[in-house]
Amino acid sequence: MSTALPNLLGFGRPELAAFCAQLGEKPARPFRAKQLLHWIHQAGIDDFAAMSDISKALRERLVSEAVIRAPSVVRDTTAADGTRKWLLDVGTGNAIESVFIPEPNRGTLCISSQAGCALECSFCATGRQGFNRNLGVAEIIGQLWWANKCLGSYQGDYVGERKVSNVVMMGMGEPLANFDNVVAAMRLMLDDDAYGLSRRRVTLSTSGLVPALDRLREACPVALAVSLHAPNDALRNELVPINKKYPIRELLAACVRYVEKAPRDFVMFEYVLLDGVNDSLAQARELVETVKPVPCKINLIPFNPFAGSGYERSKPDAVRRFQEVLLKAGLIATTRKTRGDDIDAACGQLAGQVADKTRRAQRRGARLAAEGATAALELAP
Ligand code: SAH
Ligand code: SF4
After folding, report:
1. Known active-site residue 97
2. Which amino acid residue places its CA nearest to atom 25 of ligand 1?
């Protein structure tokens, strides 16, 4: 983004009120923030001049002193099953992805929180890319703003049918590693004058940053998904290296604390099934024991292979048997359908080629190639 003008797309209610006051509105009028939220997030307007219920003088100041700008779209692809993926330019050679998954009773948007990711989970294409930078609030909420606009949610001055009914933070990046911006963006998602989504319809997925999870519980408790992927520390250390810092026992204790404040009374554990790595019956039985302390559901995710990953998707039979062990033990376990396979819109899937990690430093900032791993998913209702 070339302009240095403030981008009001990422401003919450207090920031908008303060900004208008700064532009010389006297006395400060709190309802200005509400009006701006409506125009930007409910009418999808990016032109201040069109905001007809705001005084002409203020509109003119806004036109010259601020912008409303979402990341620009580089590519827009729709899969045979209706799944739609946008590749968005976030500047300095970085691109991110968001994926919209339409279903009969809801529309889920999977959004990114970082360009790349520093956490290096061994089976994840984003992790293989390394970390580029945190997304700003406007870049995070801009994905939702853009999807709604593109899908035709905005009609005339105000919101029509909301096409995006659910948001999941399961695209590129670790949302809890970009805490402040992610929370600010989620507050806009929840704000009745912006997107008005209920906390149950906004899901944050984390690989398990325990202190940040505790902060989230206080700051903005939304539905929670946790990437578990292994029944014990030895294996999880290998697959999800942040486990060495926050081992399973500590993570599960944080989950129990989280559920006390969460809008749903369970945590969704994600478990990517990797052939011959974490999909044996013994591991299923061990998983049953491991998750016992936490009210939870388990979402089994077929691994989405990418070049050079070194892993393979578990055989359908192994998936079925693994799930059966969980079900027989009384757990709720679902298998995620893969969506948008033909446009690489599934979990951890790169739109482009995965660059070798050793070449990462040379590539960084060099070109628009950091196309993201995006988790297109099905969360149990
Ligand atoms: N960083 C967060 C959210 C983004 S990843 C997290 O790790 O939870 C979203 C989900 O996609 C996570 O459960 C992640 O483990 C999973 N995932 C990553 N790579 C995948 C792959 N190649 N196949 C299937 N799922 C994958
Ligand atoms: Fe980062 Fe999540 Fe991928 Fe791990 S699975 S590298 S935390 S995006």
Report:
1. yes
2. 347
Q: What is the rounded average pLDDT for all residues in the chain?
A: 87
pLDDT bucket at 381, cuts 50 / 70 / 90: very low
For residue 360, the one-letter residue type is: R
Return the CATH class of domain 72-364: alpha beta
| Mean pLDDT in residue range 192-212 | 97
Higher pLDDT, 338 or 11: 11
CA dihedral angle for residue 42, residue 160, residue 157, residue 138, rounded to 10 degrees: 20
CB 286 within 8 A of CB 322: no
Q: How confident is the model at residue 91 (pLDDT cuts 50, 70, 90)?
A: confident
Per-domain boundaries in the chain:
8-65, 72-364
Q: Please give the CATH number for the structural domain made up of 8-65.
A: 1.10.150.530
226 falls in which pLDDT band (50, 70, 90)? Answer: very high
Secondary structure (3-state) at 295: coil
Between the alpha carbon of residue 136 and those of residues 15, 133, 300, 323, the distances in Å are 15, 9, 31, 39
Q: Which of 205, 251, 300 to mutate to test the pocket of ligand 1 (most atoms within 8 A of CB)?
A: 205
Q: Is the CB of 304 under 6 A from ligand 1?
A: yes
DSSP string covering 190-204, please? H-TTTT---GGGEEE
227 in ligand 1 pocket by Cβ < 6 Å? yes
d(CA 210, CA 173): 16
* Backbone φ, ψ for residue 368 (5° rounding): -85, 60
| Cis ω before 27 (30° cut-off from 0) | yes
